[in-house]
Amino acid sequence: MNIPNVLTLLRFILIPIFVYSYFYITDGNIFAAIIFIVSGITDVLDGYIARHYNQITKMGILMDPLADKLMIITVLVSLWLKGIIPFFIILIVLIKEFSMIIGAFILYRKKDIAIPANKYGKATTLLFYIAIIFSIFGWPYGLTLMIVALLLALIAFAIYSIEFKFYNRQ
Fold first, then answer.
1. Is the torsion defined by CA of 81, 85, 91, 94 positive or negative?
2. Is there a contact between 46 and 53 (Cβ–Cβ < 8 Å)?
3. pLDDT tens track of the chain, all 170 residues?
4. Structural domain harbouring 47
5. What CATH number does residue 98 fall under?
6. Total structural domains in the chain?
7. Which residues contact 33 (CB under 8 A, 6 or more apart)?
8. CA-closest candidate to residue 72, choices 20, 128, 24
């Protein structure tokens, strides 16, 4: 297992740590935000290392976005449980993410292809991270940023859908 894949595995481990800190630790917002930011930093770092040192693996291409999706969904559910965001945000993200996971699985099984993240997907993830930090701390415009991130996610989903159809027809 290479360093980028270890960093991806670390992000999976950070998910329950985020939940525990957010709900059960006094001043958990600060610790949860730190865990969430560390998750984002390791995401950027594993991508950089994988590309820069030619350590890109199919496992990494599949597991890296899964770790991101699970972290973001977990955090969104946590924010909803605390009454910070409305449920429709989670519902739309869940439908989009599960559709993408199923599509990725189908392409990988049928064609041995994994579609890497594009710039819209990366921008969406960054904007969700910013919106989530604003929301965790109750800063102004957290919900507005969340909705903008959601709209960008839908654009990224449309682009991925087009790519899926292209690769699936080959």
1. negative
2. no
3. 899 999 999 999 999 999 999 999 988 799 999 999 999 999 999 989 998 999 988 888 778 888 988 999 999 999 999 999 999 999 999 999 888 878 877 877 777 766 666 788 888 888 999 999 999 999 999 999 999 999 999 998 998 888 777 766 76
4. 3-169
5. 1.20.120.1760
6. 1
7. 133, 136, 137
8. 128
